[in-house]
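Prompt: Have a read of the protein record below and flag anything odd:
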Amino acid sequence: MTSGMTCPKCNSENVYHDGSLWVCPDCAHEWNPDTESGDAGGDGSEVRDANGNVLADGDSVTVIKDLKVKGSSLVVKGGTKVKGIRLVDASDGHNISCKIDGIGAMNLKSEFVKKA
């Protein structure tokens, strides 16, 4: 490909344009060069909720669907508000660390929350 574009995550030159996004088939990273142009690091450290809003440490979020707690019979109900989240870099996709009243400390995926 002669696009001159490289993946900001793995630096692969094997990328292609798909609609308004660029896609790297090697690491499955998708990005929009217009919105990430000011990001010098380009490491994809930006965490977004289910609606695409950027999340930060200390934000409050609302769970959007019922989530089963692994290894337990407990369920985090949709609509539960979680205050004071911490963003973590986890390899299993759980990028939010928080405490939920009645359940305790746990990790959540950002795709199942929305910014409150």
